[in-house]
Records
---
Amino acid sequence: MAVVSLARQDESLPGREGRVAVIDIGSNSIRLVVFEDNGRIPGFLFNEKVMVGLGKRRDENGALHQDAIDDAMETLRRFRKLASEMQVTDMRTVATAAVREAGNGPQFTAELAAMGLPVRLLSGEDEAYLAAFGVLSAIPEAEGLVGDLGGGSLELARVSNGEVHETVSYPLGVLRVAELREKKKKGALKRAVTKALKAATWIEKCKGQPLYLVGGTWRALVRVDMHRTKFPLPIVHHYTMQPDRPARLVRLLAQIDPAKLTSVPSLAAQRIPNLPDGAAILSQLVKQVGLAELIVSAYGLREGLLYERLDADIRAIDPLIAATRDEGERQGRFPEHGDLLNRWIAPLFEKESDTDKRIRLAACLLADTGWRAHPEFRAERGLEMALHGNWVGIESNGRGKMAQALFTNFGGGVGMVGELVDLCSSKELEQAARWGLAMRLGQRLSGGVAGPLELSKVSVEDDKLVLSIDSGDAELYGEPVAKRHRQLADAFGKKTEMRLL
């Protein structure tokens, strides 16, 4: 498994300055994403998709229709202008199967180059590699098979120990599956998948391992599953399905009126016609390879383009910690407050797992972000930030624990929050509430500045929760601090003791 660092990103390392934009010309859609920079987890400034459908709008010889080219050029001129207005300094334009396979693809890309958008025409293997890099960017511990389903092709890559290994590309995108269906030959898709997989014997190494899902059609399919199972958190990233679920979705989509799917939250109407074919190919892939759980990645090819250029030292940084540290520094009052606060409360939680220590650090990094909010709504702000923030490298269970910690830290109390009980056990939420109370004590004692925390410590000794303060800071132990000291001690079932050092 890849080694991931919780350390701060060194600003001197390459790759942070300037806004970066990616234009992705796919078989179904053309998309522009503008990133704040090219750091470990860059912020998303803008994201727009236009369903141009280049892969469907071809003549009998495979060339792109002129009206399709005209629609694409209109979209691309808009994207070029937007990127210019947003002061993008690094523009990357890529094209995939629809342009790669079109007889007039070279003329199309030459026209784009002439208007200032030089195109990197990706091979199928390039697509697989970049999609896998995108998954590793968001889920560094990924071990198994990455599948990226587009309109024109299906890319597969094996990932292990933080590296991309074998890759392959098949002409089995959702548009191609639709063509197979139109031929009305029973079992055609199964035979096509079987034939394709036989040519890549390395895929057998992925048997019993997870499949990481990339691509708009599969993410849309997952939204249907989330809606059907009433999953409490409407975030697709790191949503997990068991291997029998795709076959069930195939049956569901064969029976349901497509019009009913419009009620599924965040499901783009343009994706609905492709869902049955997306489910069919997913079901065949899972069955024939013998894959285990299915894990959704919100990151794919576009994020892989950025990750590809990062220095190895930056790649090694934990994506959740990088993002929460950056957010804490943007919104907090005092630099490095979160790291110091985490070190200060750590002696109370020495027996925790590495996973919990990581989530606790992320919560501490966000512990000072609510001060601008109205006091009556700070707890809700912490809850919303943890649950619905654009984090990666964290599952729904971790979001729940982080949410409880921040809710308690911002004054919401130690009671379990109703919307978290389906994400975490009561024991996990009680522990997260203790994190929040410890964070709350440290912040009240120090006022958020470094000195008092650096000169004090907190510990559990027998039946007491001891707060040791430097004698020069004795005046800081007023009633507000004593009250939070008692609350934390009660949560541990201990008595309080204050000592002067």
---
Amino acid sequence: METFFIFLLVGILAQAVDGALGMAYGVISSSVLLALGVPPATASASVHAAEVFTTAASATSHVAHRNIDWRLFLPLTIAGVLGGILGAYVLSGIDGDIIKPFVILYLAVIGLWILWKAGHEFKPRKLPRWVTAPFGLIGGFLDAIGGGGWGPTVTSSMIGSGQEPRKAIGTVNTAEFFLTLAVSATFVWALVTGHWEEAGALENHAAAVGGLVVGGLIAAPFAGLIVKKVPRSVLTYAVGILLVGLAIFQSVNLFLK
């Protein structure tokens, strides 16, 4: 029961940050699980199982507050699902830590770029539809590999390319629901076919997953309102600071291993 309440608090914190800035639920949740010794594939599967529920609630909030650019939504979602399926299949057969240094470097560079842009006046521009496809493909793959990475990769790339922060966060968060469904289904398929050898450890973390689900559902309904009310410059600075912070945090964890 103690584990459930610990992860309830983790879920509330992670979803509050994710709903407001379009990233960090998966990174925060999976980082806590990995710190407790949970295998990478098991941590990713646990987080994505929880995200099926939290992203549904968050997406509903963003739709209600009109934070979505529907023109970019479909290509982003399709590409994200394809990338997520590929990443989940790969992770269920190899150690996901191999790719982490490259993800950390990407987060740091994009975070610094966004912070620079936040300190200079720039007008949001209309992104072409095709741009979101490569963002989605890479983001979906990294998300499944690392148990979190969709928001940091895709939201940051869209904002860095000139998309209005409110629309970028709402669009990415809503597309994430379909990504988590696809990734979770792929892990189930890997389990059923025997491709995933460490899957037996999942049942040992049911309390943690339950806590993440309940905590995330408590915070998710407020996501759309927060993004709608917070000024664009504040959102941009917050995204940049969070990205750099995540890169530093993950670098330290990688170094201490």
